[in-house]
Amino acid sequence: MTVEYDLIIIGGSKAGIYAALTSAYLKARVALVISPNIYQKSLENCLIYNQTFTEISQILSQVRNAPQFGIEFPIIDTNQEEKIPSVKVSDAMDWAEAVVDNCGEEFSPVMLASVGVDVINGDGEFYRLPHFGFIVNNRRLRSRSFLIATGNRPKIPDINGLSTVDYCTPMDIWRQLGKDHTGSINISDNIELPNRWVVIGGSYLGIELAQTLARLDCQVTLVISEAHILPESDLEASNLIQGELEAEGIKIFTKSPVTQIREIEGKKWIQAGNRAIEADNILLAMGEEPNIEGLNWEGVGVKFDLAGLVLNEKLQTTNPRIYACGSVAGGLAAANLARYQARIAVKNALFAPLFQVNYLGIPQIIFTQPQLAEVGLTEETARERYGKDIWVVRQYFKNLDKGHILGETTGFCKFVVRRNGEILGASIVGVEASELIGAIALSIQHKIKLGDIADLAQVSPSCAEILEKTAQQWQDQRLQSNKTLQNFLESFFNWRRDWSK
Q: Which of 19, 236, 324, 351 is the right S-S partner for 342, CB 3.0 to 4.6 Å?
């Protein structure tokens, strides 16, 4: 039977849009089905807004720290009194809205249509086998393959009393501040941030937003059930980030699961472990869950569990003609991961299912200050897998000239390698970590060893020197551990000096 499309993509997330563009550039006929409800719920669509506010808070911190560089610019109010630099929330929201709009122009429906993507707006579902296809707006669409890219939404935990109080999530934290009594966004000049915040959950978004709020002069308490923040990250790196958050005034309560929430006399109270915490506002940041409801999975033989769709390494569901990519396929709601999965899924769906995902070379970043960037295996995972064949080397930003020039000396670069120099993973905590981690990811993907990085003379002064210095640290350790080579070198130079006489 003739089909209308080579690929039908369901979901308006960035992963879905990128997959649609990739398919169109390959000259395939592709349709992108965007559900208005799912699109608005997609967590991916709030990340730029949140990161814009994170950048604003970091700029504010830099302005306040300007005197250490000899810069003085007292701000005088109408009463001729000196003021501490602060953020006008309404203007910051205007800027964030403009950034989101500008970034979204690249993926507008007009642009998609111009390259040959059929954009279809509406809710739909798969119709049952053997008449395989997707029905939307009473129209039956047929295709050789389908790709699910509906994105994630914040996970709402089952906490006693949560439904009786107002709260926000990483998806709507800033936009809620601008809502009027009708629920519409209406940014006014008198918007103020609530003073006392309790952030429930240690997801990477919760960590980023906790620091952002603290830098905007809010009192922030972070409540997590784990023993420390970012439990899936390198322990040394997560401990440094936790210490930095606490140094900025954020109270962190670990091993404190939230059991109930109440509003008493107009005040919100959170029971976390054996503590009762008062708050003006609550931010739920306990991770994400996929938007996969209402698509009639049973009718097409697709299985899913609590984590989401069941996928193989080719990103196929249990129905081999249906693929998934982006945050709905697991992992962080990160644009780089979404693009990588989209490329794999599109090639498998359009041609043949020959390509498999390999996440070891895909970097991850948490936009705190300092930033935390990671790629490959952590030290703990590598030791479990390779045992005594593991070497760990690190270098600190305080040993960089550029770190002192920028006034950013907190952090380190850490490589996890095998004895032969094969790079298994790396963690960078420090300034420009998001820019530096890409070079390490490329090294892992192309099996470039640590010795090759040590031989690359980086520009100086620069933050990139941390890579060269860390690699040289590995070379020094290898030499110190090789007594035979040390004895040979000592004998060689003794002989050469004697011979020169």
A: 19
